[in-house]
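SEVERITY: medium
COMPONENT: batch folding queue
REPORTER: lab tech (J.R.)

DESCRIPTION
The queue accepted two submissions in a row. Attaching both inputs and their returned C-alpha cells so the on-call engineer can compare them side by side.

ATTACHMENT 1
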Amino acid sequence: MSRISGMFAQLRRRKEKALIVYLTVGFPSMKMLPSLVKAAVEGGADLIELGVPFSDPLADGPTIQMASQKALENGITVPKIFEAVKQLRRSGIKIPLVLMTYANPVFQYGLAQFCKKAASVGVDGLIIPDLPPEEAGELLPLARAARLDTIFLTAPTSSPERIRKIIRVSTGFVYSVSLTGVTGTRNELPSDLVAQARRIKKLSRVPVCVGFGISRPDQVRHVASVADGVIVGSALIQTISKAGSANAPQAVVRFLKGLKQACR
C-alpha cells in the first residue's frame, strides 16, 4: 500500500476527509520551506502538494503564478527541489508529498531519471496538469516501477467516458477540478459541484478529491460532504504572502486548523 493509500485508509477509519494543501517550492524562499511544511502538518494537512515553479503554468491563476515567478527568481531548480524533499524526510516529515509540476521540467530532466530520483528522495506521487492520459504512455510504467502514484485531473466538462479513462490511469486519488478556468479563490463555488463529485465517485475505484477555488471552512465543509478530500492552494499562498516571512508559519497553522476542522 502506498503512503497516499494508507493515509486515506486511516482517514476513513476516523471518518475524516483529507485536507490537501499546495505550497510553491521556493516561495517566499527556499529557506522557509521546512518551516512552512511543518506548519502545514501542525495545522492539519494530510498531504502536501509541492509545486515545481514553471515559467508558463497554464492551469494556475495569478496567485500561484506570482509565487512561481518569485521561486524562479530565487533560483529554484528541479535538483534543488529533490534535495529539499530529501531534507524534509530526514527532518521527520512523514505525510505524503506529491510534486505538482508541468511536463516540460519533467521531460527536460529526463522522464526515467525524474521518476527514479523523485521516489528515492521520498516523493509519493506526481500531478502533471498538462499531461493528459493519452500522452502519458511513457510516464505510467516508469512511475509504477518507481512506486509513484499518478494523479490525473477531471474537469467539469469531462464526459463519463473520459472520466473512466482518467480513473483507469489514476492511482492515489483523482483530482476533480471544481470549475473551468485556472486556480484561484472564489467567493462562490459552482452549484453543481456536489453532483459532479458524486458522479465521479460512482465511477472511481480510488478516492476523489476536489480542488480549485476553495478557501473557506464553509466551502471545505460543503465539498467534504461528498468528496474524499479537499485541495486548497491559492488561499494558502495568499495567507503566506499577506503574513510576511516572519509570521507566515503561525498564519499557516491558524488558517489550516479552521479548514481541517471542517473536514471532520
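ATTACHMENT 2
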Amino acid sequence: MKNLTVKNIEGMDKQNMLDKLKEFPAQCKEGYSFPLPQMQDRKFKNVIFCGMGGSAVGGNIISTVAYESSGLPCMVNSDYSLPLWVGRETLVVITSYSGDTEETVSAMKSAKKKGSGIIAISSNGKIENLAASEKIPFIKIPGGYPPRCALGYIFFPIYRMISSLGIVPELHTEIFNRIKKWTAGFLPDRKNNLALNITEKFYDRVPLIYSGTRLLPAITRWKTQIAENSKSFAFINVFPEMNHNEIMSWHYPRWFIKKCVPVFITSGNEHPRTKLRFEITKNIISQIQPDIVDIKVKGRTLLEEIFYLIVLGDWVSFYLAILNRVNPTEIKEIALLKKQLGGKR
C-alpha cells in the first residue's frame, strides 16, 4: 500500500511502537525466564485473575486454556471488588503493569481480607509495595512500556507460575520460535504480507470479527488494539452465540452495513456443529455484504493459535493507525480520564 511507506510510518509512529512489535518475540522468551517467587503449599479450588485493559489479557488466555485442560474453574475479574465466593481456597492473581491500577489495587486488598492465596505481578507502584509489606509472592517485570505492548512480560511469567502449580499444562517452548517466525512475516517490507492485506480491507470500515469461543481472548485483543492503536471501532462476537441474535443485525442501518467488513476466524478445531454454523452464516452474510475476510489461524496448540492471532492483530492495528494518520502509542482520552479520576491505570 502506497500510504504505508517507511516515511509515513516514521512520521506517525512518534514513540516507536514498530520496534516494540519487532521485539515482541524476545520479550516473550525473556518473560518466561523471569525468576518466580515461592508459593505456600496450599490447595486451591478455583482461580481468579484480576486486571484491567492490557493487564487482563493474560488472565483471559489462561482461563481459556484452563477451560480445556484443567479441573479448576478459572475466571477473569475486571472490577474493584471480588465475587462473594472468593475465599481461602481461591488463588487470586493480581496483574497491573503500572502497579497503580485502582480497580486491581482494590481487588488485591479484598483478597487479602478474605485470606485468599495471592500472586502479584507489576513493574512498580502500589501493587509492589503491598506485596512487600504483606509478604505476598510477587513477580517484578520491566517498566517503561504501554501496558498493551508488555504482554510478553505480563503473560509468560504468570503462565509458568500457574503451570508450576499444576493448573495448566507445561508450556512447549517451541512457541517462542513460532512467535518469532510469525512476527517476521508481518514486517513492513515482507511480500504477501497478511497483516497488510487485512489492514487494507479494514481501512475506513468497521470490522465485525467472529470466531469460536476458544479464540475469544485473541479477538478481544483485536478489538482493544484497534481501539487503542488505530483509534477505530471494531466489534466482536463468537459462535454459536452469534447465531442466536446478531445474525439478524445484518440489515439496518444500511449505511452502516455498507461500512462493515465481516471477518471469520477459524482454526479447524471448532466443534463440528460450530464449523457448520460458520459455513451457513458466511453464506447468509455474503448475500448482504460479500466483501468477507477469512482468516485461518496457525499453531499446533490452543495457546499457539491464540498467540498467532495476537501477533497478527497487533500488526494490523499498527498499520491501521498509520493509514488513519494517528500515533499508535498516544492514548489522549485515556490519559485525560485518568487525570480527572486522580489515579493511574
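NOTES FROM REPORTER
The chain has two domains: 6-10+186-323, 34-171.
No errors were logged for either attachment.
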